[in-house]
Amino acid sequence: MPRWNQWLFFGDDREGGCFPCLKQLCLDSCPNLTERSLFKSGTIEKLEISSSYKFMESLPLDQYSRLNELRLVSCENLKELNLDIRDVIESLEIVVCNKLVFPGNHRYASIRKLRIAACDLIKSFPLDFFPGLKELELWECLNLESITAFSEDNGIATLQSTLNSLTIDDCNNLRSLPQQMHRLLPSLSNLEMAGCPKIESFPEGGLPSSLRNLRIDDCNKLVAQHMHWDLHGLTSLKSLEISDCDVVLDSFPGGLLPISLTSFHLRYLPHLKSLNGSTFQHVPSLHELVLLDCNELQCLPEQVLRPNFLRTLVIFGCPILER
């Protein structure tokens, strides 16, 4: 509704006006609506604004006392959120809001799930501003350079004990994962990284031992340093996936695999030449091995072909092995 510019209400906004039971409101492609026409109600639990209110610089949310989930997409002039409800929202998604300053200097204790995509103003993301956060996704934040897991106050680091899932995708300028994450993110069980070309290594101290799933996609510099990964200490790791890297890998992986590993996927590694047989000697729980589009992979090690070792072996797009 591109020509709609005013929403006339009847009744008391605090009681929902003519929609006294409304719990979910989605406004899409209403660019000419003004801030004054924003429907306000204490009954709404989920609010989505997409390509609407293009002239709105501040989003007033003080009357949404029950708001639990907020999604903002392509709010091109939005610069700030009203923070009176920062202890109510549990799920927040911000997509293509390039003028929004977030998180600013405020803490958001209630947010459990946060997704930020294509927001160019974000250069550093402070995890300690979200003490209750459990899931974080950062997508296509092209100016993001760092993620910090703690703030220093008189030399004391604030622990982040709740984050259990971290996804980073196409953040081209991100240079490292959070420092000391092995100690400061003790609940992290899922880590997915894709399209982070400037990350060269894991932080000092390695990854949290609580990790159960690790996916690394299109991170050439990081994969080139696989000899220094030290994954053997990840005693909870169940699933490992490495994909879409065009670095030359004469033998992979370079170090020992965790004894807890059950699933190992290698996808789109065109210059992988061989699997390091010694790494498979101490993974009694490994049941699944998937090899996709590894054009130069020449053979499978004897350790992989042992009777009763694998339950599932998938090979596709590996022409030398398939001969």
UniProtKB/TrEMBL annotation:
Gene Ontology biological process terms, A to Z: defense response
Keywords: Plant defense
Superkingdom per UniProt: Eukaryota
InterPro entries: LRR_dom_sf (IPR032675)
PANTHER family: DISEASE RESISTANCE PROTEIN RGA3, PLANT BROAD-SPECTRUM MILDEW RESISTANCE PROTEIN RPW8
Identification of the protein by name: LRR domain containing protein
Naturally occurring in which organism (per UniProt): Trema orientale
